[in-house]
Design a protein that fits this description.
Elements lengths: L2 H6 L15 H12 L2 E2 L2 E6 L5 H15 L6 E6 L5 E6 L5 H17 L6 E9 L5 E7 L4 E5 L9 H11 L22
Antiparallel strand pairs: 1-5, 2-4, 2-5, 3-4, 5-6, 6-7
Helix pairs in contact: 3-4
Length: about 190
Amino acid sequence: MGFWDAVTGRSRAKANNLDALFNIPSAAITLQTAAGFTPTGVGSVCFRSAAGAAFAQTRDEVVALIREDPQAPQVEVTEDGFGFTWVVVHRSPDDTSGLCTDLHAVNTSLEIQGFASGLLCSVVPFVDPSGRRVGLVYLYKQGTFYAFAPTGENTRDNLLEMTVRDQLTGELPMETDLSRWFALWGAPGL
């Protein structure tokens, strides 16, 4: 924060670091060895759709870009009950690196085309042998991660979320402000 920002009471937004998505494969190993959670092979990017043909064209180009991959994953575009759009990528659960590359490509493409203000988050879900799910959520505007563990329609496992945070603090930039740990009810893969 600079002098003028301190005087006026403003703070600068934390810059995102999309390359942090590439740390998820090593975090996945930690989650598997420490808590028995394995990747589901699903990942998604959530954003607010913009009106107009330019945005629709960009979204379609992003999906086409991912489908051009020689091992083309299944890609779909869905809208949730809150009006947010999700680009959902399905890969083999063993290909977390490829999944993170796809999510990075979606975020970067939307950013380059001028739609960064609509980007909200990326989610990579994990599951344990008992069926519990937890998603690693990357907050685009903060450049940080948090864990979201839904247990029902509108309930979540806060203890599991904190446990995952503690296990991954050394590997991922974890969000420290708990007010930003938003519930992602109905997120693909969770």
